[in-house]
Write a structure and sequence with these properties.
73% of the residues lie in helices and 0% in strands. It is built from seven helices and no strands. The longest helix has 31 residues. It is globular, with a radius of gyration of 20 Å.
């Protein structure tokens, strides 16, 4: 058993450590803003995006928003946002439940991990992250669909689905990232379009 004097000292040390490393909680307004972005992206993805076709590909606004939020908020927010976005899209489009949630969660988490290593204020990193995430998500989706019995040739999937979708989403990355950054009120003193 510790003597009372040493207990006071150990408690004081623990209190000091707790105050230095305690994370600051997100404000309710910030959480509502993220939720608003999720809803807006799901609405765009389920109502407008299916009717837009560029080079044979449809834009994936939901994925672009997930990657943008992950770059701005980190891996935990990216994963949570990806899961919520994927679940809402699966429900709205009456798709096989869980596929989009799983894939978007991974995309959000790893995009958030990327934000820890690069300058997320650069216009280049959102483009690269969205391009890479789209390649991985579309490929994973094609593999899962193949496992579920939907057959298509590999050449068709790569050159008519994956690559055009990645290029289209990469074109959307910078504007969507800038909108997300503005909406969330991320420090505006840094220029979004720096390299």
């Amino acid at each position: 058993m510790l003597a009372p004097r040493s207990m006071k000292r150990s408690t004081r040390v623990l209190d000091q450590g707790k105050s230095d490393s305690a994370p600051t909680p997100e404000s309710p307004v910030s959480v509502l803003k993220v939720f608003g972005l999720i809803l807006a992206a799901v609405i765009v993805q389920t109502t407008i995006a299916p009717y837009l076709t560029v080079l044979g590909a449809k834009p994936d606004a939901a994925l672009v928003v997930v990657v943008s939020l992950a770059l701005l908020r980190g891996p935990v927010w990216g994963a949570v946002t990806g899961f919520a976005m994927g679940l809402l899209i699966d429900v709205a489009l009456v798709q096989t439940m869980g596929i989009s949630s799983f894939i978007f969660t991974l995309a959000g988490y790893f995009s958030g991990r990327l934000s820890e290593r690069v300058d997320p204020a650069s216009w280049l990193w959102p483009v690269i992250a969205v391009f890479a995430a789209t390649m991985v998500v579309q490929t994973a989706n094609a593999v899962i669909m193949f496992l579920l019995g939907v057959e298509a040739s590999a050449g068709f999937v790569v050159f008519r689905v994956v690559l055009p979708a990645a290029l289209l989403n990469a074109l959307l990355a910078s504007p969507v990232f800038a909108i997300c950054r503005w909406w969330l009120g991320v420090d505006q003193s840094q220029n979004v379009f720096t390299v």
